[in-house]
Specification:
CATH architecture of the largest domain: Sandwich
CATH superfamily of the largest domain: Jelly Rolls
Radius of gyration: 18 Å
Order of helices and strands: EEEEHEEEEEEEEEE
Oligomer: single chain
CATH class of the largest domain: Mainly Beta
Helix content: under 10%
Structural class: mainly beta
Number of helices: 1
CATH topology of the largest domain: Jelly Rolls
Number of domains: 2
């Protein structure tokens, strides 16, 4: 199990897990140690990242794209058009996207969102992130 140590003088709290200063914890879930200020003291066995899909999707005007989502029982989808405007389709729901209107889903069962659609009337770039959720 990977282990993580709090080498700081302050408590570190993440996802209902508390590290006191100097404390070492072994966890079976992915921990973004560097972002939290933790030191990874043992890396094996490695825990898979929760990121299932992460990419900037370039959309040509009027050409729809479908993105398959790798399996995880539950997923969360985040999307934002970094240029132009686009529409994200999840099942029968269409979500408008632009640089000021991003989208973050609730936790969804994978069987409802095994794939998603993207389209733009004038062309766009969409930043897409799909994460597996415990």
């Amino acid at each position: 199990m990977p282990t993580y140590k709090n080498n700081t003088a302050s408590q570190i709290y993440w996802r209902n897990i508390l590290w006191e200063p100097g404390e070492i914890r072994a966890l079976t879930i992915y921990v973004p140690a560097t972002d939290l200020g933790l030191t990874e003291t043992a890396a094996t066995p490695a825990v898979a990242s929760p990121v299932l899909l992460s990419e900037d999707v370039t959309l040509v005007a009027g050409v729809a794209q479908t993105k398959a989502i790798p399996y995880s029982a539950r997923v969360q989808i985040s999307a934002m058009a970094t240029t132009g405007t686009a529409t994200l389709t999840i099942g029968t729901k269409d979500v408008p996207l632009d640089s000021s209107a991003d989208y973050v889903s609730t936790v969804l069962p994978w069987d409802k969102v095994a794939s998603i659609g993207l389209i733009s009337t004038a062309g766009a770039t969409v930043r897409l992130l799909v994460e597996g959720v415990l």
